[in-house]
Amino acid sequence: MELKVTTLDGETTGSIELSADIFGLEPRADLIQRCIVWQLSRRQRGTHAVKNRAEIWRTGKKMFKQKGTGSARHGSARAPQFRGGGRAFGPQVRSHAIELPKKVRALALRHALSAKAKDGGIVVLDRAALDDGKTKTLKARFAKLGFENALIIDGAELESKFTLAARNIPNIDVLPVQGINVYDILRRRKLVLTRAAVDALEARFK
Questions:
Q1: Secondary structure of residue 80 in the 3-state scheme
Q2: What is the pTM of this model?
Q3: Residue 53 to residue 76: CA distance in whole angstroms
Q4: Over 90: is that where the pLDDT of 1 sits?
């Protein structure tokens, strides 16, 4: 697959050939879905918790005598059926993370990239760099290029002025190539890759 390489000013500076092994696969929704579930489950903090009957600070004395009251027999007032008692089977602090093999995650990333390429949502940028680091300047250039909702992937090192200018623009994410992931790719309409990012991805999956 051949794509044009553009600059931030909207000029074409040549073309680049994208590897069919990374960007030319037939997308599998099941793999992509599994990877997204894996990602989001790892983000859950799992800090929700309730007190069970063993953790309630309340007397353990028998509420009333066993016989002669006409009421059902009861012991501790910490039981779940009483107001102020512990909760039965409530949530406890735990990890929500699930396991997904590394090879499946790598394959899902390739399928997500292929899905974006199939939809025509990939743009190759020559460099992600600015001279002045002004958000207003970068926003005007993005408007000219049509980057209203985009994920921008650069090489291993991000250019500091570009990153500072982009972080105040809504619906724009900037990540180094090692941070590329399936969820963020599909969350944004456009995937903008620099030449350095394309080279790094091809080296990674070679």
A1: coil
A2: 0.84
A3: 9
A4: no
Between CA 5 and CA 49 the distance in angstroms is: 52
Q: Which pLDDT score, from 0 to 100, does residue 125 have?
A: 94
Lookup: tokens for 183: 């969820």
**DSSP state string for 16-39:** EEPPHHHHSS---HHHHHHHHHHH
CB 122 within 8 A of CB 168: no
Q: Half-sphere exposure (CA, 13 Å, Cβ side) for 133?
A: 6
Q: How many CA atoms lie within 13 A of 196 on its CB side?
A: 15
Contact 189, 122 (CB under 8 A): no
Asked whether the beta carbons of 178 and 139 are under 8 A apart, the reply is: no
CA distances from 48 to 67, 84, 85, 94 (A): 40, 19, 18, 8
Q: Answer for the pair 1, 18: CB distance below 8 angstroms, yes or no.
A: yes
Six token digits for residue 43: 């983000």
